[in-house]
Amino acid sequence: TVLRCELTGSVSSAGRISLPLACSADRHPSLPKMTLMVLFGCIFITFSLPAALFFFVVRKSAKLVIVMYSSAFMWILAAVSTAIIWNIVIPLKDSLWWSVFVAIPLQELFRWLYWKLLKRAEVGLNTLGDDGSGKLTREKIAFVAGLGFGCMSAVMQFNIVLDSINGPGSLPSPGCTSVDFAVISALLSFCFLMLNVFWTMLEYRSFEQRLANGGKFGLYDWKYAAAILTHYTASYITLNSTNSNSCASTLVPEFMILLLTGAATMFAYGISFKVSNTRTIVS
Hints:
Order of helices and strands: EEEEHHHHHHHEE
Oligomer: single chain
Distance between the termini: 57 Å
């Protein structure tokens, strides 16, 4: 809002001088439009790829839609459980480090519980009437479960940010004041959304291989260990975002972890790219 004031002078017949001050408040027309563009830009940064994945992969199968929405609900249960513990254990309110340390095992617990639930429902999902998508594979179920987990995580994380930029003006990032806080949050939300997809795929692959080997630990457990390690690392790196001039020191490591975790997931599932003279083949 811009406050405009105008000082006008006049002389009365009695020789008195009056200097009235007239002020009016004008709302700058470009500020709401600027905020609206930032709002939709941040939404597109975070949810464009997940929306495309949903449209081309999940939407075609009612079974996959059920898997995705159920996975999102499991993330909510994990968040509620974390909030209950956070309110009960008073010291957690004073330390973000300990809050993260407690929150991650709860998320991983509910991710494992959802895998157990899917194992019980696996036969039932495959015996449902064919909806045109054919038989569900464990790889596709793991991918869609991770997508639901990640989308709900991004929605809840980014919801507060969207609410803070609904008015005119912009909110600078604490780490680098030259960049809008919403843009940094959108990039981090997208990063964690896709990380949740990869973490779920890695862990479910490890669970399946351990089940096939009679529940014994083996070299295949590197997938589960990699998921837990990168989850802790990526989460603790975000605590660096409140430091000055730390945008690059936060975003660059996060996206490096995303690329490495994605590469590990492709390796775990035997996915490879073959480049020929005419096209690129994914196998």
